[in-house]
Amino acid sequence: MVHIDFQIDPGSLAEQTTENLAEEDAGVLSYHFFEFPVDPVVGGVVIFDGNRLPILYMAYNGLFAIRALPGTHRADLDLPPGGRLTLRQVGASVVVEYPYLHHTGQAPYTELLEAWETFSARVRSFLLEQFADFRDHPQLGRWFRGEEP
User: How confident is the model at residue 96 (pLDDT cuts 50, 70, 90)?
Assistant: First the structure.
């Protein structure tokens, strides 16, 4: 079983709606904004429970890393402030490790990919509801329009 979701934080969102984010650099936008509680469960193991993480980074970079696993066999997602999520492909499965809490889960690659695609689509939809002009973002617009890079 693989599940990843986020909880909307209205207070945090309200702070960010006052800024003109549609022209913000993609790296800054994805890594420093929209930090909401994220709850990934991999192979029945809660990897981290409600850590506030940048959901755009998790959706975009996480999905990119997972899609690349068949060729790379390993990916590290750097998480603020100083954490790391490690993904290792072992045969047809992926081991997901959060070393900070010593939590490790394992699931079939296809299940992890499907769950992350669902999470990514939910993040995209949520952010577009809040910031429709993200469709035209110079660096992330294709992703927001569903045109995968």
Answer: very high
- Residue closest to 68 by CA, chosen among 104, 98, 39, 109: 109
Residue 128, judged by CB atoms within 10 A of its CB (0-12, 13-18, 19+), counts as middle
Structure tokens, 29: 């936008």
- Number of structural domains found in the chain: 1
Under DSSP, is residue 37 helix (H, G, I), strand (E, B) or coil? strand
| pTM, two decimal places | 0.92
Helix axes 55-72, 109-130, angle to 10 degrees: 150
- DSSP one-letter code for 23: G
Q: Which residues constitute the domain of residue 128?
A: 2-144
Check: CB of residue 5 under 8 Å from CB of residue 122: yes
Tell me, yes or no, whether 149 lies in a domain: no
Q: CATH code at 6? A: 3.30.2450
